Amino acid sequence: MIEHYLNAAIKQEQERAKILKGKISHTLPAIELNALHQTCQDRIDTTIDSLELLLTDPLILQKDLIHERIRLFRRVIGDLSLLETTAITALTRPHADDIALSKLAFKIHKEINFPLPPPTVTCLSREYFSINTSLRLLEVPLAESDFLLHLPDLYHEIAHLLISTRNNPKIAGYQSEYGKFLASVSNYYEGERIINRKSTGPKEYIDQALASFEYFWIRGWANEIFSDLFAIYTLGPAFAWAHFHLTAERGGDPYDIQVPGFMSHPPDQARMEAMLVGLNLLNLKKSADEIQKIWEEFINATGTKPTPLYRRACPLELLERAAIHALEGTKQIGCRIIQEDTSSQIHDILNNAWVKFWANPETYHEWERDCISRLKDGSSGS
Amino acid sequence: MSDIGLLGSIYEQLRSYADKLDHALIGLRDPQPEVAQRARAEIVGLLHEITNKDSMDPTSRLVTAILKQGLPTIAGQGLSLCVSLRKALEQRPPTSLEMSQLELVALTLDKECSSTLARIKGKR
């Protein structure tokens, strides 16, 4: 009976895939959407082929392989569903702002000598900035193309492609530095566990907490911190200011550690600490000091303080190692590392935006509106 | 990156690993000995990647971390189960007990894939 159900469900999903393909078979409004369009067409074909295999391969149809067949079926459907709710939705509702931000992503890619193709950008994000690395689709909130202060996050998002892309020798240096860092995280916590076992105190609780911290780092924190650092190295202080802005507007307790529990992102304080280490590694001490001063002032104003677990979860030693490995990786793939005198269109606009914001908050918005308008119509901007 | 983006990246890495393992488990049952042997070698390779403490491969490290968390609750043996399975499969085809243990590893990865996907789609 279940086999009959599966056969029918697979055929239904094949039809669904074909219908989705039909929905994106129209003339595209801009060349910037071509890559995403082609990716969607290819993915849909792969989905249909995978479903066909689950329907007809005599080996997979064996009764004792029903577990594998169900698991593979569900994952194919999961992929199709993700494609439908992200890339296909974006392609069926393209907007001029998507094109403008996709062009901006292309300019960033050229300016920093990014070794992978730039992503397509859509303004359909339900959350904050985010990238679907497999589809190379960067999602930003609807109004974000009309403001400059958060756009440094584009650099962070494209950095995620450097970790998720596979089998590409051009970025092997970056991935190898990332792998070395992950290994050093495991070694660090192994050392901490040994120390804990010899200590007096609540050994079992701390042991579990240490295991959680290692898991958090490997599952997501390292990826986030590396991407933050890539943005610092290729754009500069504007990214740290954008982190300040995001934390100030939408963050919670910057020291918060949720154990037991799960934290996908590192605490905001740890991210800022790593960025400041990164700026100092680039000899941008003056900027680092300015940012640190205002950050500390803001954190004091919120009244939050480090929890006892904070430094165990985010030791300076790991943050410093991350900064060193990320810098080495960024150098190895030939990306432009910024210096005091670096100058190029998008770099200057995004860094100047923060200078103007602090210098004259009253008139900043007027300047920003004019700058965005020139950026969108293709003239200079800064 | 927002939670959705990070989860998407984790899902991609897990999914590719889970698919490789499931396809290899299918290959193990192939009546042609050379296909079954290739599948066994593939599984040994996958298990080697996730039990190699010196691995610098980010995906392997992620899968290791996930199995380290997920396997104890299912199999009660954690990663040592993967080590013993790898050693056994290096020598010979799996016994029926080892086949069920391999199924547990595949199931753990699949559960993590589906819970990650559910979180991406807003079911938290």
Low-confidence stretches of chain A: none
Strand order, main sheet of chain A: write it out.
1-3-2
Radius of gyration of chain B: 15 Å
Round the mean pLDDT of chain B to the nearest integer and report it: 85
Counting helices, strands and paired strands, the structural category of chain A is: mainly alpha
Beta-strand percentage of chain B? under 5%
Biggest β-sheet of chain B: count, sense, barrel? none
Shape category of chain A: globular
For the largest beta-sheet of chain A, the strand count, sense and barrel status come to: 3 strands, mixed
What is the tally of helical segments of chain A? 14
Q: What share of residues are in beta strands of chain A?
A: under 5%
In short:
The complex is a heterodimer of chains A (382) and B (124). Chain A has 14 helices and three strands.
Please tell me about this protein's structure.
- The complex is a heterodimer of chains A (382) and B (124).
- Chain A contains 14 helices and three strands.
- Chain A has 382 residues and is mainly alpha-helical.
- Chain A folds into two domains: 2-93; 120-377, no CATH class.
- A three-stranded mixed beta sheet of chain A has the order 1-3-2, sandwiched between helices.
- In chain A, helix 1 packs parallel to helix 3 (66-92) and helix 9 (268-281) packs across helix 12 (316-332).
- Chain A is globular and about 65 Å long.
- The termini of chain A are far apart.
- Chain B has 124 residues and is mainly α.
- Chain B has a single domain (3-119), classed as Four Helix Bundle (Hemerythrin (Met), subunit A).
- Helix content of chain B is 81%, strand content 0%.
- In chain B, helix 1 runs antiparallel to helix 2, helix 1 packs antiparallel against helix 5 (96-120) and helix 2 (33-51) runs antiparallel to helix 4 (79-91).
- Chain B is globular, with a radius of gyration of 15 Å.
- The mean pLDDT of chain B is 85.
- The chains are: A mainly alpha (382), B mainly alpha (124).
- At the A-B interface, helix 3, strand 2, helix 5, helix 6 and helix 7 of A face helix 1, helix 3 and helix 5 of B.
